[in-house]
Amino acid sequence: MKIRQITPNVFVDTESSEPPYGHGSNPSFVVTSAGIVMVDAAMLPTRAMKWKSEIAGRGEVRYIINTEQHLDHVAGNYFFPGTVVSHQGVRAALRGPLEHIRAFEPALLGQARSLSLREYVLWQYSQWDPEGLALAKDYQPRLPELTFSDRLTLYLGDTVFELFHLPGHTPSQVGVYVPRERVVFTGDNFGNAIQPSLAQCCPLEWVRSLKFIEGLDVDHVVPGHGLVGNKADVREFAAFIQGVIDTVTGLIRQGRSKEEAMNAVSFESRLLARHPGNEQQRMNVARLYDVLSKKACADGAPGTMKTSF
Ligand SMILES: [Zn+2]
């Protein structure tokens, strides 16, 4: 475990984000005078148990804030106490078909549609944490119990948490700003030197959300993946997002079809991809093409809703 203390009360685990890249996001926790607030949960059972023992002496887990609906952020909720908080679109996505929580490669879609969320999580555990499966024999997905649509302020002991709806990597992303610690948790709206999936993104909103994050009074920006960074790193990442928008917009203006666009570009040479490979890049380009040609992030999936600013 590489849980790092980045401020007096903020702890971040970036082990899954460092080579060799593991399965999971950057689960984190904030210690307050009235208990602990987790931001996302360690995904795999074995790691979740290590987390529990790490937290044990520091207080009771009161809340788990999920920054998005992807499993590397939410699957581990089951292993912890506390009220699960997120955007209402995250809850809706987790209650919907599996393609709302992951953009599946076309070849996998049929298989994915036959699984429940519980079955899908256990299938992932069997691949990535077989020795942890015994810890998950009674596994049930834990969905957000407290949701919001625009913003939510959470007061716990001596600490204030400002939760914002910041669409980008997915339509329902949540940013968590902790002014007292001068920290913001971005989920996968920011990957530090790593390219998150673009396959469910809202690109134009994403650029605005990154500007909003840059405007916060913080020293540390905790990404969904990659090492803890700062606002300069966010600017660099925003330039990558703007770049992919410009590239795909250019192809659309040239009259290229979606298939031609998917064949023409890959963004892997611009930024190390968390999900490498041609198929993933094609899905990324397809999503950008669809959204940018319609000029709106409206595909009918839960959580695709108006932006909050
Ligand atoms: Zn993630």
Broad CATH class of the domain at 3-190 = Alpha Beta
**Widest beta sheet: strand line-up:** 1-2-3-4-5-6-7
Could you please say which CATH topology of the domain at 3-190 applies here? Metallo-beta-lactamase, Chain A
Proportion of beta-strand residues = 15-25%
**Main sheet summary:** 7 strands, mixed
Could you say which structural class the secondary elements and strand pairing correspond to? Answer: alpha/beta
Helix percentage range: 25-40%
Attached small molecules = zinc ion
- Terminus-to-terminus distance: 38 Å
Low-confidence stretches: 300-309
Q: Tell me the overall shape.
A: globular
Question: Any overview of this molecule?
Answer:
The protein has 309 residues and is an alpha/beta fold. The protein has a domain at 3-190: Metallo-beta-lactamase, Chain A, CATH 3.60.15.10. It has nine helices and twelve strands. It has a seven-stranded mixed β-sheet with strand order 1-2-3-4-5-6-7. A five-stranded mixed β-sheet has the order 8-9-10-11-12, covered by helices on one side. α6 links the parallel β11 and β12. It starts with a strand and ends in a 15-residue tail after the last helix.
